[in-house]
């Protein structure tokens, strides 16, 4: 039994998802004639109470398009030092949009309205112009932490006062919604743009969307084309998305429960220094200083348990749709006998 906890992106489409894909009605989406893509975009925009949504081949492209829509070259974006848009998008913010990032030294990828206020550049011409604040919920590098919605509202007030855009990298927003019993509409009311992923907890093979009102989304289609993201009969993938939105949301709770149980077991191991708080489907833990990280990972790999390193002796496990109850029992058993 291969237990793959490296990422929640390792899932493969289920039989019923494949059936939904096979049954999809498709057309050429470059002519905006793919009925299933149009249906998915309408579904998501309605869900968030926004006027438009656009389907993307990746979360990175959706985020990068948002950065481009909100900024001009030379501008500055405020985000956390852990932000995906800064760390894991290959320097795209500078490459695609010519912007720099003002990194906030936050807590597990989250920051406060006061920190945003302090990070805004003064008006003087020799500063770069602050134009956007980007939030990530849940935080990836922050170990799946969920934001306080009250703090988000305070940040929105700061953005309004200073005429800054507000973008949400919601690759794992579904996890936060399920865990905190929040609604997409709540987020739609606050953020100018939101990106969401279908290929993480929801178990699709491909796909992300960017939502926003018509004014900010005006050039989204053009930017997606410039980034090389035009797709043709992509309704097959949109069908997977619609299927996942209707069938796989509830399972996220199960992922969270399993992650908490894994964390509890890890905390008992003497070779582990700390297990970070677990709120959703990500477990981040740190080994004792005298434990060799590669040795530990090899030990697990020999038991067919696969996890990833985040550097500086931090390791990560992510639970997901294809991590079954039987795998979970097995993992707990193996951790107990380490
Ligand atoms: C996965 C992820 C993305 C998008 O990644 P892609 O692999 O490009 O789909 C964006 N933001 C966060 C926080 C992520 O975890």
Structure, described:
- The protein has two domains: 94 residues, Aspartate Aminotransferase, domain 1, CATH 3.90.1150.10; 233 residues, Aspartate Aminotransferase, domain 2 (3-Layer(aba) Sandwich), CATH 3.40.640.
- A hairpin with a 2-residue loop joins strand 12 and strand 13.
- It is α/β, with parallel strands linked by helices and 338 residues long.
- The model has no long low-confidence stretch (mean pLDDT 97).
- The chain has a seven-stranded mixed sheet, with helices on both faces. It has a four-stranded antiparallel sheet with strand order 9-10-13-12, with helices on one face.
- Helix content is 42%, strand content 18%.
- Pyridoxal-5'-phosphate (PLP) binds next to helix 3.
User: Mean of residue pLDDT?
Assistant: 97
- Counting H and I runs of at least 4 residues, what is the number of helices? 15
Helix % is 40-55%
Please mark out the parts with pLDDT under 50 across 5 or more consecutive residues, or reply none: none
At CATH level 3, the topology of the largest domain is Aspartate Aminotransferase, domain 2
H/E topology pattern: EHHEHEHHEHEHEHHEEHHHHEEHEEEH
- As a percent range, the share of strand residues is 15-25%
Question: How many structural domains in the coordinates?
Answer: 2
Order of adjacent strands in the largest pleated sheet: 2-8-7-6-5-3-4
CATH superfamily of the largest domain: Type I PLP-dependent aspartate aminotransferase-like (Major domain)
Largest sheet entry? 7 strands, mixed
Tell me, what is the CATH class of the largest domain?
Alpha Beta
What is the CA-based Rg, rounded?
20 Å
- C-alpha end-to-end distance: 18 Å
């Amino acid at each position: 039994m291969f237990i793959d906890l490296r990422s929640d992106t390792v899932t493969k489409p289920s039989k019923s998802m494949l059936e939904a894909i096979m049954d999809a009605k498709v057309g050429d989406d470059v002519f905006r004639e793919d009925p299933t893509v149009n249906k998915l975009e309408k579904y998501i925009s309605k869900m968030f109470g926004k006027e438009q949504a656009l389907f993307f081949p990746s979360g990175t492209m959706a985020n990068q398009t948002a950065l481009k829509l909100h900024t001009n070259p030379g501008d500055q974006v405020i985000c956390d030092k852990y932000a995906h848009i800064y760390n894991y998008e290959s320097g795209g913010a500078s490459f695609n949009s010519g912007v720099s990032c003002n990194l906030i030294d936050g807590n597990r990828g989250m920051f406060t309205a006061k920190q945003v206020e302090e990070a805004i550049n003064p008006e003087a011409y020799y500063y770069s112009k602050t134009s956007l604040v980007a939030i990530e919920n849940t935080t990836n590098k922050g170990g799946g932490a969920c934001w306080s919605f009250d703090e988000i509202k305070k940040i929105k007030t700061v953005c309004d006062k200073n005429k800054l855009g507000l973008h949400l990298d919601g690759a794992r927003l579904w996890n936060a919604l399920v865990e905190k019993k929040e609604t997409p509409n709540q987020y739609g009311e606050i953020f100018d743009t939101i990106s969401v992923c279908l290929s993480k907890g929801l178990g699709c093979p491909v796909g992300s969307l960017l939502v926003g009102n018509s004014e900010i989304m005006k050039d989204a289609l053009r930017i997606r084309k410039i980034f090389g993201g035009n797709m043709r009969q992509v309704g097959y993938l949109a069908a997977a998305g619609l299927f996942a939105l209707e069938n796989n949301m509830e399972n996220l709770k199960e992922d969270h429960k399993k992650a908490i149980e894994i964390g509890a077991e890890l905390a008992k191991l003497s070779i582990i220094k700390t297990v970070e708080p677990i709120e959703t489907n990500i477990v981040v833990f740190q080994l004792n200083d005298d434990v060799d990280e590669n040795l530990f990972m090899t030990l697990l790999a020999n038991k067919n348990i696969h996890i990833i390193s985040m550097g500086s002796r931090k390791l990560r496990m992510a639970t997901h749709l294809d991590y079954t109850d039987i795998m979970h029992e097995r993992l707990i058993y193996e951790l107990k006998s380490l």
